[in-house]
Amino acid sequence: MYFETTFPVRYYETDQMGVVHHSNYIRYFECARNAMIDQGGYPIQDCERDGVTIPVVEVECKFKHPARMGDVITVSASIDKVPMAKLVIHQTVRNQEGALCAEGDVTLGFLNKATGFPTRCPDRLVQLIEESLKDK
Amino acid sequence: MYFETTFPVRYYETDQMGVVHHSNYIRYFECARNAMIDQGGYPIQDCERDGVTIPVVEVECKFKHPARMGDVITVSASIDKVPMAKLVIHQTVRNQEGALCAEGDVTLGFLNKATGFPTRCPDRLVQLIEESLKDK
Amino acid sequence: MYFETTFPVRYYETDQMGVVHHSNYIRYFECARNAMIDQGGYPIQDCERDGVTIPVVEVECKFKHPARMGDVITVSASIDKVPMAKLVIHQTVRNQEGALCAEGDVTLGFLNKATGFPTRCPDRLVQLIEESLKDK
Amino acid sequence: MYFETTFPVRYYETDQMGVVHHSNYIRYFECARNAMIDQGGYPIQDCERDGVTIPVVEVECKFKHPARMGDVITVSASIDKVPMAKLVIHQTVRNQEGALCAEGDVTLGFLNKATGFPTRCPDRLVQLIEESLKDK
């Protein structure tokens, strides 16, 4: 399952080093993840309405090349494996010239919204991922 | 009712102009407002648990002097009038030398969390404000 | 001079009230302003390279209707008058159903980057605005 | 070298899950790092004035327990080794009850501000760290 989304850097995302603050790549990652499941027909707000919240349990990110104001970046999310208790997503941020700005893995868990306890990945999301992996 | 809180500027709050991004003063204002009612014994999370959310309905802010990384700022919130349907709070941000960085008025409304409709300011908050105005 | 740009709400922009945090509309406004002058051929980074920074000196914003995760918002910026020392921009945020989420005026100043002192609006920006107003 | 700093969660840092958005722990980490070198007498703005910027080159973070509005968190930064080309800092976020909310390692690089090329850790920062490690 692969998805990418493209948008310009926002001015407030820069810092006094003159580049995008590192924490924002973590936020860019989230934009691509949510757009991916949105396009798959199961947006995050539906998932939460179905009683499952999807907290991030781990982030690993390498910052390779600064993104700057004026850049139009493309953020990717890809899933290689059907999730059980956890879902690992590989993510990248590239600028308009294709330079790799940041790359990392984000691990999501699944919580029953009512009890706060861990639960399995919602069936609809499992199906979405299974179908996309079949296509490969 | 007057309250102030002091904290250092955070690096990620700066932008490529080398100063605190203007949107962050709006956030600083919120910090002082919440610390004020927290100290008054009625923190925002209790208020929300009591079924009332307090959305911001209007902000007016003048940006006078840039705050910078390294500055330790003091943010004030003051209330002059017992609220009915709305609550107006006057707010300032000053740096460690007393220079006025930003100044403005924030108007809050009150919503019944269950219905989403406007409601009156919660009694406990009215009492807090009345008592503080009596002290003057 | 009128411009609008459309993008989805980002998850991290929501708060525990379940809606977009008010400070983010101020940031959305900036996105539309920068996209407008970018499209006009004079992006903010060129302007800064030309030695002029454009601080926000005043913001007035009314929050009318909450934007939520899942919304795709359209942010507008419009200029009615050729700027001298200051530039006033009227801005709106609407959701996909056309509901007005926020509306306000943002006033920009112009600073000589080297001296830090106020300066006039850069000629290229004045021309951009004059031409667009002629078209009306 | 060990440092910790304590501050309350800010309302705008929460998201619609009702907890602090994961990206903010990355920002909390930065607050503790900067406060540490500030207290050591070599604040980040001096470092930048000396011509060295300190980009984050890698972040690893595990999110263990949600921080919430109302929590007062303590963020730690610790350094175990004198840096050469890179500086690794171990960081934690705990709430007022001592629960570990997030834990991770942040790796910093050093760039010559003028050339943009990698450089060594500034001498003053090396000395700061050496002295603190001697004390152990």
Describe the protein in words.
The structure is a homotetramer of 136-residue chains. Chain A is an alpha+beta fold and 136 residues long. Helix content of chain A is 26%, strand content 32%. The first copy, chain A, contains 3 helices and 7 strands. In chain A, the strands form 2 sheets. Chain A has a 5-stranded antiparallel sheet with strand order 1-4-5-6-3, with helices on one face. In chain A, a hairpin with an 8-residue loop joins strand 4 (72-78) and strand 5 (87-94). The first copy, chain A, is globular. Chains A and D meet through helix 1 and strand 3 of A and helix 1 and strand 3 of D.
Protein traits:
homotetramer, alpha+beta, 5-stranded antiparallel sheet, 26% helix, 32% strand, globular
Give a concise summary.
Chain A has 136 residues and is an alpha+beta fold. Chain A has three helices and seven strands; from the N terminus they run βααββββββα. The mean pLDDT of chain A is 95.
